[in-house]
Write a structure and sequence with these properties.
The complex is a heterodimer of chains A (746) and B (304). In chain A, 28% of the residues lie in helices and 28% in strands. In chain A, strand 30 and strand 31 form a beta hairpin. By secondary structure, chain B is of the alpha/beta class. Chain B is built from nine helices and eleven strands. Chain B has helices at residues 13-19, 66-72, 112-129, 153-164, 175-184, 202-214, 227-230, 253-277, 291-303, and strands spanning 35-44, 48-54, 76-84, 87-93, 133-139, 143-150, 190-195, 218-225, 238-242, 248-251, 281-286. In chain B, the strands form three sheets. A six-stranded mixed β-sheet of chain B has the order 6-5-4-7-8-11, with helices on both faces. A three-stranded antiparallel β-sheet of chain B has the order 1-3-2, with helices on one face. A two-stranded antiparallel ribbon of chain B has the order 9-10. Chain B is elongated and about 85 Å long. The two termini of chain B are 24 Å apart. The chains are: A alpha/beta (746), B alpha/beta (304). The A-B interface holds A 26-44, 46-47, 51, 745-746 and B 97, 100, 112, 196, 198, 226, 229, 232-233, 235-244, 246-252, 254-256, 258-260, 263-264, 267. Strand 1 (30-34) of chain A pairs parallel with strand 9 of chain B, so a sheet runs across the interface.
Chain lengths: 746, 304
């Protein structure tokens, strides 16, 4: 049996080559008269036998050299053993399962595992009387050549030759189930065999369940993995940190898996659009290490690129490259929905605006009205405050928090909107909406807020007024039954004394309180809260959503996922509490908005190759015909390739049933990418360790007859040696030819 | 210079001028018809005193040395060495192998035969200059033509005409022709044989030459060798064709070069050994040199 059988055919044809070359290069004799042929004839007779011997030896050596070379290229498998039944009398139903997952593309001893498996399977599919076979190509989903075992083994062998490694994980159990179903649907009286040719990766095979097969089924496991574990490095994941904004460097962590026994110093190259950034780090042996760094990003929208390991020199090169994608946002626009007067200082909206301005107005694009904008902009019906005037209470700004009317230019980083009658267009431009003393919200406003939450916007409700309890309840109702707030808010009963409350239970591990670190206790110790709402745990509410609790067991801060957005409720009256006058408010609000309320969309969804994905597109149904779909390599996807598109009230849902290759899948609207997905090789395929042989017999066989054949161990190494020896013999023949020529004085 | 010499195309004026100072001599005692400058086998009453010999009854009393008899009382007769002229026969081998080296089949320029013609014509001129007689024989597997030695200018001209008009014949034997020549020649003298000795009957050839030597001939062998015969030409492959109708052989010279050169050298050695064994004067003549220096060197060597 040979790994590359075609090389034998080519070698057979090439054996005639020396003869043909000899015939073609034979010189045409020139006529030369001589006095007598006596001496020439004598010399020729004396030499002819010598030169005939020389020519014979050279021709023989050349022919043997070509034959050896052809055999070396063909890579004979001399020590191959077929453990499956070769009986010609009994009817045998054999199902061969060939592992086509990504790990089969790794190299052991210079040979790809899959190429090592191919001749083994080919031998199993050899024509035999009374043999029915089927071939299952297993990866993320089983792919059988026929629905049932067949005697048409030629087609199976053809399918085997066309099969290749897929960048997918091995989902084993569906494959085993599929094989078991074939047995159950076939001839029950025949001898049933299932032969599995795989590298038996630990990650895939540890939970294999062979009990689906009949009790008398013979299970043959043929390993093509080498005895020695193949060292491998892999780029597993690229994780952008927080919200990535245009013009600022993005922080990212790259997870590198070192699946070897030695620590490695790795160099990684991140290419994002036109930017290439090198990363370096040290990866301990048999560990996954995160390497962090900053990547400059320019321009808003979706960016795709690659993370590539440099000079990895490992067993599986395919996992050294990872396609990445991220969405670069503009600076978040925050709308403060309030009924406070613009010149009311102090007020809840004033404190919130001042706190947020110090966090989010660091870089301001020209034409964007911010809290530091000039008074003329405020006068132009855009509700802003002059910061200088705010610091000086005696010189209040003349404008009030009235409805902003200049929609074309009113896209401030932090903007005040009148809660009584908000401009919906301006409201929809905001990434985060902060409600501070909004009064009683109208039904229309609630509807808009609900839709924005569903589509990925976030909302921070600073609840200090008694009307806020009604607003929150209305909002909860508007969100529907699928969303449950962790607590129910209700107003303080009238006439009840105003007790000062303190923070008693704080989730220090998660934002926003995690930013205080060890100083958290000192920071919250002095905080005193008056007024605010009372809360009680809601039925079916998640306690995990409560980030901080007050001394009367009311919730101080809750963060709840609502659709694609988030709803945070801060239960405090900023005017009556001292938190606004402590250094706590600015980092608290900044961290809450930057880490919890504005981070949802920066990371590109990542799916494993070969598996389906579903993506909700932020596009209305009316633009469905304008969408174009690109696959890996920016290849345009046809309607058949792009899967299914379904219109829903919140947008369009894209269902992709199969992703055969790794890369970026983009959805474009008028040439601009509006959404994207990245498919990658599953990380478990990078760990090339094989499961020990005894595990199959002891734990996984389920009492079935199971034979484990280590086809790649010493025998495989000998196979590798065979072609080396053949190549050496070929070289020896060439050297012998030269020596022969020299010996005969040619 | 004879009057007929200029008629041969093998003798130009420059050659005649060079040949004017050359002489053909022999150290052997020879027999000639006329008095000459060569030592005769005969010792008579004339000529130069050679020796004394005790008188035997019946001898001519005129040769008795009376002065010795008067002094000693013993009778001795005086011996005198005769000098006679040279009878030289130029035998030329005209087998087809002698045409080797010719420019083409129609032009013999550069061939061994032409070289032999130059040498023979020059020798005939040199010999005839000293009143010696020169003859010619064209030999192959038979005696094709011959002229007995003669000394007149007309005879020499005929000899040179014969030499000039030589044509090769397809033959691989030489001994029959020499044997016929031996049977035809009656007088003793000098036989100069021009041949390449590429014959099948080499032993017989020297057997006949031995007969010449028994008859007290001085036999001079001029062995003509072309430089291209001693080594094979450079090249990948040749179709060698024998000039004596031996067929053809295709082979690569590189394969047989060593053996060929050894065989040819062996052949040269064998001819020389045979020649010296029977007392012949052997000289290998290479066509690598012009004929005049070769002839000059040959004659000087013989003069000693």
């Amino acid at each position: 049996m040979f790994t590359n059988g075609w090389a034998l055919a080519m070698g057979g044809a090439a054996i005639m080559l020396p003869v043909v070359i000899h015939w073609l290069t034979k010189p045409r004799p020139a006529r030369m008269p001589v006095s007598t042929l006596r001496f020439i004839r004598g010399a020729v007779e004396q030499r002819r036998s010598r030169y005939r011997l020389r020519n014979f030896l050279i021709l023989l050596l050349r022919t043997v050299a070509i034959a050896l070379l052809a055999m070396a290229v063909a890579r004979p498998l001399l020590h191959h053993q077929v453990t499956a039944s070769t009986s010609e009398s009994a009817t045998v139903t054999r199902i061969v399962i060939l592992d086509c997952s990504q790990s089969m593309g790794s190299r052991d001893g210079g040979i790809i595992r899959f190429e090592r498996a191919r001749p083994l399977v080919s031998e199993l599919l050899r024509q035999q009387p009374s043999l029915k076979c089927n071939l299952l190509l297993a990866a993320a989903s089983p792919n059988s050549v026929f629905d049932a075992p067949t005697t048409n083994l030629g087609v199976l062998r053809d399918s085997l030759q066309k099969a290749s490694v897929r960048p997918e994980r091995l989902r084993l159990q569906p494959t085993l189930n599929s094989a078991a179903e074939m047995f159950s649907a076939g001839d029950q009286n025949s001898q049933q065999e299932v032969v599995i040719v795989s590298d038996f990766q630990r990650a895939n095979w540890a939970a294999a369940d062979f009990s689906v097969f009949p009790k008398d089924c013979q299970i043959q496991l043929r390993s093509v993995a080498a005895t020695e574990e193949a060292a491998n490095l892999a780029v597993l994941e690229f994780t952008p940190q927080g919200r990535i904004e245009s013009g600022r460097e993005a922080e990212a962590v790259i997870r590198i898996g070192n699946y070897s026994e030695t620590a490695r110093h790795v160099r990684v190259e991140v290419q994002l659009e036109n930017v290439v950034v090198p990363f370096e780090g040290f990866c301990p042996a048999r560990a996954v290490t995160g390497i962090g760094g900053r990547i400059p990003v320019n321009g808003e929208g979706w960016h795709f690129g690659t993370v590539r390991l440099i000079d990895a020199d490992d067993a599986l090169p395919d996992d050294n490259v990872l396609t990445i994608g991220l969405q670069v946002h503009p600076q978040p626009r925050i709308a403060i929905l309030t009924r406070d007067k613009a010149d009311q200082i102090p007020s809840a909206s004033y404190y919130i605006e001042r706190a947020l301005s110090s966090t989010f107005s660091r870089s301001t694009s020209p034409g964007i009205a911010t809290s530091t904008a000039q008074k003329s902009i405020a006068q132009n019906d855009i509700a802003t405050r002059n910061s200088d005037e705010a610091i000086q209470p005696g010189t209040a700004a003349p404008a009030t928090a009235t409805q902003a009317s200049g929609a074309g230019t009113a896209a401030g980083t932090v903007m005040l909107l009148n809660a009584a009658d908000p401009d919906v267009d301006l409201l929809r431009q905001a990434d985060v909406i902060v409600l501070a003393r909004p009064g009683r919200l109208s039904a229309e406003t609630l509807t808009v807020l609900t839709a924005m939450l569903q589509r990925g916007r976030s909302l921070l409700y600073v609840a200090g007024d008694q009307l806020d309890a009604a607003n929150l309840n209305d909002l909860a109702k508007s969100l529907g039954s699928s969303v449950r707030l962790p607590v129910d808010f209700f107003p303080r009963p009238a006439g009840r004394s105003q007790a000062t409350r303190f923070l008693t239970d704080v989730d220090r591990r998660r934002p926003p309180f995690s930013i205080f670190g060890d100083e958290l206790a000192a920071a919250v110790r002095s905080l005193e809260f008056s007024d605010g709402l009372l809360t009680r745990p809601a039925k079916d509410g998640l306690k995990d959503d409560i980030r901080a609790t007050l001394s009367d067991q009311s919730a101080f801060l809750t963060v709840t996922a609502v659709g694609r957005g988030r709803l945070a409720v801060m239960n405090t009256d900023l005017e009556r509490s001292n938190i606004a006058r402590t250094p706590v408010l600015v980092p608290l609000l900044g961290e809450l908005l930057s880490q919890e309320l504005t981070t949802t969309d920066s990371r590109c969804p990542v799916y494993s190759c070969g598996e389906p994905f579903t993506l909700q597109l932020p596009v209305g149904e009316e633009r469905l015909s304008d969408l174009s779909f690109l696959g890996p390599g920016n290849t345009s996807l046809s309607e058949a390739q792009r899967g299914q598109l379904t219109a829903i009230p919140a947008g369009i849902v894209w269902d992709m049933f199969s992703t055969p290759t790794a890369g970026a899948w983009q959805v474009q609207l008028e040439g601009r990418t509006v959404s994207g997905v990245v498919t990658s090789i599953p990380s478990e395929e990078s760990d090339l360790r094989s499961i020990p042989e005894n595990v199959f017999a002891d734990r996984l066989s389920g009492g079935r007859t199971l034979t484990y054949s280590d086809g790649s161990m010493s025998g495989e190494e000998r196979q590798d040696d065979v072609w080396v020896w053949l190549a050496s013999a070929c070289l020896g023949c060439m050297i012998l030819e030269l020596l022969t020529l020299r010996l005969f004085g040619t | 210079m004879t009057g007929t010499a200029a008629q041969s195309r093998f003798l130009d004026l420059q050659a005649l001028a060079s040949l004017a100072r050359m002489r053909f001599t022999t150290k052997h005692r020879i027999e000639g018809a006329y008095s000459g400058r060569h030592v005769s086998r005969q010792k008579g009453g004339a000529g130069e005193f050679a020796d004394y010999r005790e008188y035997s009854p019946g001898e001519d009393l005129r040769r008795l040395d009376w002065k010795i008899y008067a002094r000693t009382g013993k009778s001795y007769i005086r011996l005198f060495q005769d000098e006679t002229n040279l009878l030289c026969t130029l035998a030329i081998d005209v087998s087809r192998s002698m045409v080797f080296g010719a420019e083409s089949e129609s032009k013999s320029a550069g061939s061994k035969l032409e070289f032999a013609q130059y040498l023979a014509t020059g020798l005939s001129h040199v010999i005839s200059q000293t009143q010696d007689h020169v003859g010619c024989a064209v030999v192959s597997d038979q005696l094709i033509d011959s002229l007995p030695p003669g000394g007149t200018p007309a005879h020499v001209a005929r000899v040179q005409d014969m030499i000039e008009s030589l044509k090769t014949v397809p033959a691989t034997l030489l001994a029959p022709g020499l044997r016929q020549l031996f049977e035809r020649v009656r007088t003793r003298g000098v036989l100069i044989l021009f041949s390449d000795f590429l014959v099948d009957d080499l032993s017989e050839v020297f057997a006949v030459l031995r007969l010449f030597r028994h008859r007290q001939f001085e036999v001079v062998i001029l062995h003509l060798v072309h430089p291209d015969e001693e080594r094979l030409p450079e090249g990948a492959a040749f179709r060698f064709e024998g000039l004596e109708g031996e067929g053809r052989i295709d082979c690569s010279p590189i394969e047989i070069r060593e053996e060929y050169e050894q065989a040819f050298a062996q052949h040269l050695t064998m001819v020389r050994t045979y020649a010296l064994a029977i007392g012949c004067d052997y000289r290998k003549v290479s066509l690598a040199l012009p004929w005049m220096p070769v002839l000059s060197s040959f004659l000087v060597d013989r003069t000693g």
